[in-house]
Design a protein that fits this description.
5-stranded mixed beta sheet, 343 residues, 7-stranded mixed beta sheet, alpha+beta, single chain, globular, 31% helix, Phosphoribosyl-aminoimidazole Synthetase, Chain A, domain 2
């Protein structure tokens, strides 16, 4: 299970057993970059498989999750999502009402974010071959009309090497902003699945973020973005640290967390910063624009709890957390995911 959980085990598995068998290709953002989307001849492209269990959970379902997750992957690299493909593999005998509920959710979420489903495929497999339903969504997009402006603003303050919001574009001094509380999706789903009861006051954050990201690019100065899904904030920051060859220092008290999430994680012995989110974005931006970018995020309904949590720094070669007691600890990348099958 760790090989599909988004942490270090998955990265090692992909490098040795997946990517190593595929031919290299020239592109603006290639497969080998490990970014959330590829860019080929100016076309932004991504795909995502969804095996969430259960199909319906507080705040969302496999339908809204499949649309939001794929739209967000296109958006965080600086793309404007244009259309989705939808592939559904359905277990024989699944109640048709469940199929209708999932499709209603897909249609509603697609309409809300303005990204239509343009093509797809449907298969049915024998009972027991899969667990109810697997949904695979892909998306194509084009360069955001606001991305060039955003990069131009950043270049007023420092050189910017990449023409996209890639993981290797963070530099010393860049401010780190998160759009809201960490761990809501994973904890809400786990609690509902296992019957812990925390879901009575907690819902998944699943949501498409293309509107929020567009408003941020209009302000400008952003250098990298990522949605902290599998592996959570810890995995995102460690990926940036590794790919950009820069350390990070974040302040623990400044990282927004829902009290219910913190209490649940304390009870279960898991770290909320390693748990997946499905409606949040982590943003790196030049420090001179940090307040303006943070204001833009907070002005969007999905970013009301946004916060600036730290900076990139050459002082360290890893992610370091400053604790409330004034000490420092290392934020390690998760090996796997403490909450499997949440996306």
């Amino acid at each position: 299970m760790n090989h599909g959980a988004g942490g270090e085990s998955m990265q090692d598995f992909l490098s040795k057993h997946i990517f190593s068998h595929l031919p290299a290709m020239e592109s603006d953002v290639p497969l080998s970059s490990f970014d959330d989307s590829a860019v080929v001849d100016g076309i932004v492209f991504t795909t995502d498989g969804h095996t969430v269990k259960p199909l319906f959970f507080p705040g969302g379902d496999i339908g809204s999750l499949s649309v939001a997750g794929t739209v967000n992957d296109i958006s965080v690299i600086g793309g404007q999502p244009l259309a989705l493909s939808l592939s559904m593999i359905i277990e024989e005998g699944l109640d048709i009402d469940i199929v209708d509920r999932v499709m209603q959710s897909i249609g509603r979420t697609s309409q809300d974010c303005g990204v239509p489903v343009a093509t797809g495929d449907t298969k049915v497999m024998e009972a027991g071959a899969i667990d109810q339903m697997v949904v695979v969504t892909s998306a194509v997009g084009r360069r955001s009309p606001y991305l060039d402006h955003n990069i131009a603003v950043a270049k007023d303050y420092r050189p910017v090497d990449s023409q996209w919001m890639t993981d290797d574009n963070v530099r010393e001094g860049d401010a780190i902003i998160v759009s809201g509380t960490m761990g809501d999706h994973g904890v809400a789903l786990l609690s509902f699945r296992e019957g812990y009861g925390f879901e009575s006051t907690l819902q998944s954050d699943v949501a498409p973020l293309n509107g929020l990201i567009e408003s941020v690019l209009k302000v400008g100065g952003v250098t990298a973005m990522k949605d902290p899904t599998r592996g959570g904030l810890a995995n995102t920051l460690n990926e940036w640290c590794h790919k950009s060859s820069v350390g990070m220092e974040v302040v623990d008290a400044d990282i927004p967390r829902n009290d219910t999430v913190v209490n649940a994680c304390d009870l279960l012995g898991i770290d909320p910063l390693s748990i997946g989110n499905e409606g949040k974005v982590v943003i790196a931006c030049v420090p001179d624009m940090a307040e303006a970018v943070l204001k833009a995020v907070r002005s969007h309904p999905r970013g009301a709890n946004a916060a600036m949590i730290g900076y990139a720094t050459k002082k360290y070669d890893r992610v370091v957390v400053r604790t409330e007691m004034g000490g420092r600890r290392i934020m390690e990348a998760p090996v796997g995911d403490p909450v499997p099958r949440i996306c």
